[in-house]
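Supplementary Text 2. Reproducibility record for the structural model of the 187-residue chain.

All settings were left at their defaults, and a single model was retained for analysis rather than an ensemble. We include the record here because the model underlies the residue-level annotations in Supplementary Table 4.
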Amino acid sequence: MKVNTKQIDFRDRNLVFVDIETTGLSIIRHEVIEIGALVVNSKSLKIIGEYEAKIAPVHIERADREALKINGFSQKDWKGAKSLESVLREFNQIAKDCMLIGWGVAFDHAFIAKAYEKAKIVRLFDYHHIDVVSIAYPVLYKNKEPKRLKLRVVADFFGIKMGNIHRAMEDSFATYQIYKKLTQSIQ
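Retained model, structure tokens:
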């Protein structure tokens, strides 16, 4: 499957902070059920767009019950959820020419890339992706705290409040706030 290969200086690409929620950890067995994204100007770090969608699962019977509990899935809350294909097309428009950035973004990228491939939709965002955990590691390494590089632990370390349930938009926003704090500390 083709991806966007438009030649743009990476400094001129906006960033799309992305987080997904899934029915489990297996890219083969499980599926994406929520996506949250913030489009951010890479120079000013100002939010210039947002996208959030719940995705109707096709095979809920394959879901890991613990995963559904963690991300707060309920049939009622997902009643008006969109099809994966329509969400991929909408996400393509908001993320066009952007670089994906996220917390442990390899996980999100793998599920997203697999979904685009399965739907036979060309991705319009850049194939590079930035992992905020990889930025946090050298910045926080010599500190005594935090003890773990989990999103919620690092968010708490920086005084960023989060809810009790994993939600895609909230996790995208927390990652964005952490990224801003990390980049300020290395400038």
